[in-house]
Design a protein that fits this description.
mainly alpha
Length: 187
Amino acid sequence: MGSLDHLIRRIAGFKWLIILAVSFGIFANLILPDAENHINRLSGKEVGVLDLKSGLHPGEVYQTVAQYTPQAIHYYRIIELTADVVYPIIYTLLWAVGLFLIFEGGGVKPPFGKVYLLPFATMLFDYIENIFIVVILSLYPNEYGFLAYACSAFTLLKWVSLLATSLLLLYGLVMLLWKRVAGKPEG
């Protein structure tokens, strides 16, 4: 954790925040939606991607995969191994820098120490989810319930940790605003 802490402390500034926010916007609004649309086009219907579906039962995971054509499966695997490797790094650093600037730079008392490291849990869960997705896609049409359960569990963990990070950001921003408006030291 020391090297992650050092990395965030080194890049925590508005220049990096802007670079990361623009990169996040490009991935979230252009690259990944275009990839999902391409998977849908290759499948000939609106199927969506497993990454964005939380709480799927193993049967639902394989029902979704069954709707992909072989070309869609191949393309989806490529996306998981390229764009969806880079994207978690971008959003993790963005959220970590944002949390650092609010809690460390803004002087807001965090609910627990080093809250800016929480986004790295989301990244870890996302990477594990991606590994399961690639394995599921690679082994299909063979179906393994334990892989689908594990994939669904890590998808859920990813979304829960993202929610926790979002709530921390919201809390920090409200407290920072309160501190600035009220003109009182937080405590």
